[in-house]
Amino acid sequence: MKKTILFAVFIVLSISLFAQREGSDSLSIQSVINACVQLRDAVASGDPAAIQQSADQLRACNTSPFNRLTCSDTGVVSLNGHLIFDETFADSLAEGKDVYNKAEDINKTRTTRGMIGDSPKTVSRIIQAGKSSKFTFKAVGWQELAVVAEDGGKVTMKIHVTNSKGFELYRNDTEDVRPGRSERKTGFQLPNMPPCVVELEVVNCVNKDISIVVISN
Questions:
Q1: Domain count, the chain
Q2: Mean pLDDT in the chain?
Q3: How far apart are CA 148 and CA 210, in angstroms?
Q4: How far does Cα 28 stand from its chain's mean position?
Q5: Domain containing residue 36
Q6: Considering the entire predicted model, what is its pTM?
Q7: CATH number (domain holding residue 25)
Q8: Chain segment 22-55, per-residue pLDDT in tens
Q9: Which pLDDT value is given to residue 150?
């Protein structure tokens, strides 16, 4: 009887812990999401002090470039004229410099000057008006993903995961799918072996080109 009760308690606790981990507010990348949202809002306000504060907050997250994320888009659209979710870019804006015409080059240099290791990963990309971009990368274990759009942008995520052993997972947004949201986030468990291929489709729900940042743990 005691064993049965203990087993039942164990199951309840396990479910509770899993639910907490699945909750969007428990993501380990939440500080990065917050920093990117703060940067976007600070830039929209035009307040140099707030922009610098957001740059420092993003820098404190010690993010690294999400270099293993590949994009299947055939056309190339420049990031120039759009927000780059990067602390160096934000530093320049806080100093009153107009670096929007250098956004593409600044974004490219990020691939060689970020932290290396297990830190959260970010990359800025552009999505054309009313269209979507598809990204792929390999992952194992617990996976966290988020997308933050620049000011005025609204996005929806569609996620499809597979591996060579027949594993398959769909993790699509189910709320505000057509109008989109200014940021999205999710977490899900993947097998440890073999590695999975994660296909992330980010839908631009507004009628203008927008920049986004893709964030991963």
A1: 1
A2: 87
A3: 10
A4: 12
A5: 2-216
A6: 0.86
A7: 2.60.120.380
A8: 444 578 999 999 999 999 999 999 999 999 999 9
A9: 98
